[in-house]
Amino acid sequence: MQPDSALDSWRQWIDGLRSRPTILGPLTAGRSNRSFLLDSDGSKMVLRLNSSASALPSANRNSEIDIWRAASKQGIAPPLLHVDEQNTFLVSAYINNSLPQQPPLMEAFVEEAFCLLKKCHQLNVHAPNIDYASHIGRYWQIIENRETSPNPSLEEQREPMQLVLDALLDGQSQTGLCHHDPIIANFVGGTSRLYLIDWEYAAHGLVVMDYAALATEWGIDDATILKHSGVEPDVLKKAKTLYKYLCALWEEVIT
Question: For residues 74 and 193, what is the distance between their CA atoms, to the nearest angstrom?
């Protein structure tokens, strides 16, 4: 879908919108979705066009809407203004963003990110439970259906990573509503307040996986993660290893 096609339905978005929004420019050029900044009589919004063939296997766009709305009510996510019936795009409130996109980040940003994740993990909303093994299996199904051979290093990791996952699942680790994609680009706002966006991979799962992603993507040292999360050092180490393996599988799928 092109942005102009989504704009054709602007009268259905929110009450009080008086004129067709104009596109001020792209916000992101992600490999799963594309986002644009819109303006309508001084009111700014974000248009996200959902990819029709996302490379990430476990995306659940129907569940995302329920979770995003629940998160918005708790001040964790920006207000969701409109979702089209075919789930091809959504419109959310625009949050002025001063968050740098590369680590290291100011301590105030890091503290706010931890605060947001804790609120996310406590969110009481109906959501699916993620099956990490099936998630990994779908990656491998895509990889093995190609004509080219998979990366040998990934093949070598396949069995050891299953053992790591089994250890995490058998270790009575804390579970909750996890975002599962807390990369820097999925936080918007400033030092006093951040919001989480793009909830398409959110599901009930291992809380430590969010902290593993935060440590990896934000460049946060283990001591800081352990202090804020309360997880055991060995559990965090396993989760970081598994997260990096998942990222490597993702890269293999989309290239």
Answer: 13
Collapsing DSSP to helix, strand or coil, 160 comes out as helix
Confidence at residue 55, expressed as pLDDT on a 0 to 100 scale = 45
pLDDT digits (tens, 9 = 90+) for 137-181: 999 999 999 888 889 999 999 999 999 999 999 988 899 999 999
Residues 6+ apart with CB under 8 A from 99: 105, 109, 184, 187, 188, 189, 190, 194
Query: Per the structure block, which two tokens stand in for 151?
Result: 């990366």
Backbone angles phi, psi at 47, to 5 degrees: -100, 120
175 burial class (0-12, 13-18, 19+ CB within 10 angstroms)?
Answer: middle
Q: What is d(CA 123, CA 203) in angstroms, rounded to the nearest whole number? A: 11
Contacts within 8 Å (CB) and 24+ apart, 36-43: 36/3, 37/94, 38/7, 38/91, 38/94, 40/10, 43/17
Measured in residues, the chain has a length of: 255
Domains of the chain: 3-93 (3.30.200.20), 107-254 (3.90.1200.10)
Q: Is the whole-model pTM more than 0.90?
A: yes
